[in-house]
Amino acid sequence: MSRKNEITERRSAERSELALRGLAVLLGAVFLVGIAACGGDDPETDAVIAMEPVATQAAPVEADTGSEAVSDPASNPAPAPVPVAREVSYDEAEAAYHDGEYGAAVDLFEAYTNQRPENPWGHYMLGLSAWKAGHLDLAELALTESVTLSPNHVKGRVNLARVLLDAGRQQDALEHARHAEDVDPTSVQARRTLARALGETGDLGGAVDMYESVLRMAPEDVWALNNLGYLLIQQGRYNDAVGPLSLATRVESGNPVFLNNLGHALEGAGHPVTALQAFRDAEEADDRYGKAVESVTRLRELVSEDGEPEVDLVAVAEAYRARMAGAPEKASVPGNEAAEGEGDTGNGDPRETGATEGPDIH
Description:
The protein is an all-alpha fold. The protein has helices at residues 3-38, 90-98, 102-115, 120-132, 136-149, 154-166, 170-183, 188-200, 204-217, 222-234, 238-251, 256-268, 272-285, 290-300, 313-325. The chain has a domain at 221-354: Alpha Horseshoe (Serine Threonine Protein Phosphatase 5, Tetratricopeptide repeat), CATH 1.25.40. The protein contains 15 helices and no strands. Mean pLDDT is 78; it is low at 29-71 and 327-362.
């Protein structure tokens, strides 16, 4: 039996089990109502039916990494497909995806791919829908079929690599990311995904170089900026990390992930007042963002909120933008640069890389 058939049968069994449990509850209720209707000499009592909670699927949670967050497949089993007897159009299935109805999109694209198995785009969109719904096994199968039908399908390779990274299969992801970059070396998405795969397989230097190549092509690619900043923090290069992270927060000023990482870079580089402001901005953007809240509380005990910022982040961001664009630098970050390899900030894992950034739609 193929893996796809196994997944489909598992989804059908899960849906059947839920239906049987619902039927059992209904029959129990009818039985109790029948007893009450019979009357007799017994005194009247109020029958209370204890309804057993029926397991429901957890809604996909958006990761604070900015990448469409994908639910954990172990805790979010794939639903059984709803039989679709009629002809399904690509536009109809894609509309469900764009409306955020990912479960319905999975059902519709499964029907569409059964009707048109030769179309790689149908399998591609089935893979994206399954990924967004948190079903990594089905996403991998569908995207693999997409690139089997169209081996040089760059977006298929890129998103298959992302799914494999989410599944913890970094080496497999690296292979597909390299293939995508070989086919289209001008693709920002392919290079960014390759950079992520390099970093997750331990080649931090190669990852930094690849992210910088992305930024020379697209200086305002926010996820390349953020992920590069994090990698530099990993290497203890806090001062170097301030440039890309300050630009990321200029391009997308309300993103708490970018602001939190900028705060860690600034603190590691010896700029606690400016770091406190970055953490406060992250907290203001999302007061449920625990890491930023903890950092604000900690730094308020060490520095004054009214202190003079040590760094002009606007100037630093513009200098970094100019450097990536090939123009002369206008400013640099002053202060204490940590030695490479010194470690992270010591204040918890600063990583919020946005590793699952949004899938690309053709």
